[in-house]
Amino acid sequence: MSTPDPTLHVNPQKARKGLDRLWHATLYSLNGLKAGWGEPAFRMEACLAIVLLPLAFIVGQSWIETALLVAGVLLVMIVELLNTAVEAAIDRIGPEWHDLSKRAKDMGSAAVFLTSLLAGGIWLAALWQRFFA
């Protein structure tokens, strides 16, 4: 009886080194953004980012303010992608309702909500400082 070759089912990315690994990681990341674009919430946030990111350079009065405005927008998109990844992993397990699945999805949604509140607060503070202070 022969023992199975443990390298048969290993992710090929693990064996890559240097620029080859970086190149493939970049391609995987672009695939992730493409998959995210298929999600309505991420698509809406990306469209908002197209408007808000250039606006950040107008509203921000210093490089720190501009960086905070940009970071707030990007952070919402990052957390949305992570939330979508959690939901996809749970859906992969099975479509049936389970309390732990619901909790995980609800917590992912709460993370997006809190991040959106944070970004909104940063933007409101910057707009107030810029136009009303």
Automatic annotation (TrEMBL):
Any single Gene Ontology cellular-component annotation: plasma membrane
Cofactors that this protein relies on: Mg(2+)
Family: Belongs to the bacterial diacylglycerol kinase family.
Subcellular location(s) per record: Cell inner membrane
GO molecular function: ATP binding; ATP-dependent diacylglycerol kinase activity; metal ion binding
Stated role: Catalyzes the ATP-dependent phosphorylation of sn-l,2-diacylglycerol (DAG) to phosphatidic acid. Involved in the recycling of diacylglycerol produced as a by-product during membrane-derived oligosaccharide (MDO) biosynthesis.
Alphabetized InterPro entries for the sequence: DAGK, DAGK_prok, DAGK_sf
Regions crossing the membrane: 41-60, 67-90, 110-128
This enzyme's EC code(s): 2.7.1.107
Protein name: Diacylglycerol kinase
